[in-house]
Amino acid sequence: MSKKVLIIEDNDDIRENVIEILELAGYIVASASNGKAGVELALRDIPDVILCDIIHAIQTPRNHSCAIHFFNSQS
Amino acid sequence: MENGALLIAIIENAIDGIITIDEGGRIESINPAACKLFEYAPAEVIGKNVSILMPPPDKEQHDEYLHRYQQTGHAHIIGIGRDVVGLKKDGTQFPFRLGISEVQFSGRKIYAGFIHDINHQREAEERLKEHAVHLEEQVAERTQSLNATVAALQIAKEEVSLSLEKEKELGLLKSRFVSIASHEFRTPLTSVQLSVSLIEKYAEPFSNANIIKHVGKIKHAVGNLTSILNDFLSLEKLESGKQEPALHDFDLVKFSETITEEMQVLAKQNQNIIYHHTGTKSTVRLDHNLLKNCIINLINNAIKYSGENTFIGFTTEINGRECIITVSDNGIGIPDADQRHLFEAFFRAHNTGTIPGTGLGLNIVARYTNLMNGKIEFKSEVNKGTLFTITFPMT
What number of C-beta contacts closer than 8 Å exist between A and B? Predict the structure, then answer.
């Protein structure tokens, strides 16, 4: 069964390109252009992997009591 | 009689002038010193009123002074002395100190005037005064020039602090520009990179060999630009003091093997990276990311500055005291004259020719090494090769 990937990225070109690459590689891809929409999508249909622009993770409202932990790429 | 001769001799030879007058003010005797001062011969003045030796207003009033004294007994000069002005025969005036004593002589009263020339003293005083005034003027002049110097210094100081302020502002502006520009450049670059990967995928299998050639060129150019931007960002982070080392324990050997594999892909035709570790221990406590950046930079340089069919040496050693990392090549080397500038930002050795580079890599490596308390050294000979050594203390 195909794995589900959620991509959260505000830049349209990058988001679309990543979606295309992942779909070509056989993944089921969901996408959002901001953190809030991304969190909502993630809660509705839990993905196997989330690819997220770190800036948007920071902008995600803190009162979203969700079980998503964002990891800084440097940690 | 002998006493009388002595007195006469004393009077005749006295330095001060001595004039005696009678109660009416007429001159009875005048000694040579007084004659010399007033430039009269004795015969010219004896019997005359003493007022002829005075300039106005004393000339007109002397008789009255004398009369008043005789009436009231209230002395102004007699027995006291004061500075007065005398009148010479030729009409010139001169200051002198006059002392008058009243003498009872042979049953009558005479007055003896002692004339002490104070002209020289006055002159000396004048000179002293002038000198003092001159000195004061000089002091004032010097003070003024000193004040001017202090003022000029103050202005210079203000100018310096102003330009320092400007410099700081410019530095801040530059740093902000570099940071924003680098970030803004990266997004379109990422987009280009992803699109190229997609084109590569869609074009498979390549019916036209030129497609893969150009895809390769675009990927290479994007890679170059990205690494330059990364260097700029690293430098900006270092300059603004935001780069702090995060120390963690990790396995240096595994870490080095991974880098060797990654870098081997980027090496030229038959350029082999040979890794070797010495020591039984393999754990170090350093900043993983900073060290990786340092080693990749050094190996990248080794690849860039040496030819095909060469070996690139990469060694690590951990002993009781130190962790030593070396990267060596058989490349073009660094000219002696350039060696002392090698770690300066934007500096590139003169024999780099058309090989691309920003001159930032080694500057960043040196600064990262310093951040982790390490030191970096190198040995190099033109057209023989270069050996870089990074040493960290083992605590």
Answer: 24
